[in-house]
Design goal:
single chain; mainly alpha; Cytochrome Bc1 Complex, Chain D, domain 2; 6 helices; 2 strands; 3% strand; globular
Length: 156
């Protein structure tokens, strides 16, 4: 009986923590790790021109009403994941037809936005699976590598 109550308490606590605001999956990658390909960003540029440029500008500069997608745009997403930005695009864009972009097109547009903001490309394309995108942090500046333990020099 006691084990059942303990297990039920742990399950309830785990469910509560999962819905807390700010509770996030651990990120394992960063936008600095080359999470999209150049070919994908090129496709994204075409999609951006068709669906986004009318509001956000041909050079992602914004128009006073729609925000820029370069420069000052970046700090607004600090501490978020690519899943957050992907959701914002897929649910609210384009303004004249929200929620109509295919997931693959949204991923391509996101790749183009990353490239336009000088985040490095890699060999693998950015996918549209939210659980995978949630593992990629949107880091404003390049993270410093973790310090490695150095062996102490032994004097002879």
């Amino acid at each position: 009986m006691r084990a059942t109550l303990t297990l039920a308490s742990l399950v309830t606590l785990g469910s509560f923590i999962a819905v807390l605001p700010g509770a996030r999956a651990q990120t394992s990658k960063s936008v600095w790790d080359g999470v999209y390909s150049d070919a994908q960003a090129d496709r994204g540029r075409a999609q951006y021109s068709q669906h986004c440029a009318m509001c956000h500008g041909a050079a992602l500069e914004g128009n006073g009403e729609a925000p820029p997608l370069t420069g000052e745009f970046i700090p607004d997403w600090a501490g978020m994941t690519l899943a957050d930005l992907f959701d914002k695009i897929s649910v609210t864009m384009p303004l004249n037809a929200p929620g109509t972009l295919r997931p693959a097109d949204t991923a391509d547009i996101l790749a183009y936005i990353l490239k336009a903001n000088s985040f490095p490309a890699g060999a693998v394309e950015l996918g549209s699976a939210k659980d995978t995108l949630a593992t990629i942090s949107f880091d404003v500046s390049k993270p410093h590598p973790a310090p490695t333990a150095k062996a102490k020099k032994v004097k002879p």
